[in-house]
Design brief:
single chain, alpha+beta, four-stranded mixed sheet, globular, disordered N terminus
C-alpha cells in the first residue's frame, strides 16, 4: 500500500483508501420528515437541497455534503439519556460561536447541553437538529 492509498485527502481532492477512489464522502441522516431536516442542514452548510421522493441531498457549490433519507419510523436519540442513545454526531468547529449559535437556533436547532466556558478552544455546546440528531458547535480561535 502506498502512502497516498493509506491517507484520505481533503474534500478538495480525491479520497483514496486501499486503492478505492471515493468521489464524495456524505453523512446521511434518517428523518421521519425530510423537509425540516434537509432545510436545516442546507441552512447550516449554506447549500442547496436536491429533492427526490424519499431522499434529499444537500450540496455546497455543487458537491454533495449531507444526505437525508426518509425513515418514517425514525425515533430521535434521547441524548444524554441511554434509552435511545445517539449513534453518530457531527462536531462543527466555528470561529464565531455567537453567530453560529444564532444561525442554528434560527434554523430550528435546540440546545441539549450548554457550553461551560464559551471561550476559544475551551468548550463546545451540544444541540439537536430538527429530527433530534445531536451535533456540537466547538469553539475555536
Amino acid at each position: 500500500m502506498t502512502q497516498q492509498a493509506a491517507t484520505m485527502d481533503t474534500a478538495d481532492g480525491p479520497c483514496f483508501a486501499h486503492g478505492m477512489d471515493i468521489a464524495h464522502q456524505v453523512v446521511v441522516f434518517d428523518a421521519a420528515e425530510l423537509e425540516p431536516e434537509s432545510t436545516f442542514w442546507a441552512g447550516v452548510l449554506e447549500g442547496e437541497v436536491d429533492v427526490e421522493d424519499d431522499w434529499h441531498m444537500i450540496t455546497v457549490d455543487g458537491a454533495p455534503k449531507v444526505g437525508v433519507q426518509l425513515a418514517p419510523d425514525h425515533v430521535a436519540p434521547d441524548w444524554p439519556e441511554e434509552s435511545r442513545p445517539q449513534q453518530i454526531h457531527l462536531d462543527l468547529y466555528v470561529h464565531d460561536f455567537p453567530t453560529a449559535h444564532e444561525k442554528v437556533m434560527a434554523l430550528g436547532a435546540r440546545v441539549l447541553k450548554e457550553a461551560k466556558d464559551a471561550t476559544p478552544n475551551a468548550d463546545f455546546q451540544v444541540y439537536a437538529d430538527p429530527a433530534g440528531h445531536p451535533f456540537c458547535l466547538c469553539i475555536i480561535t
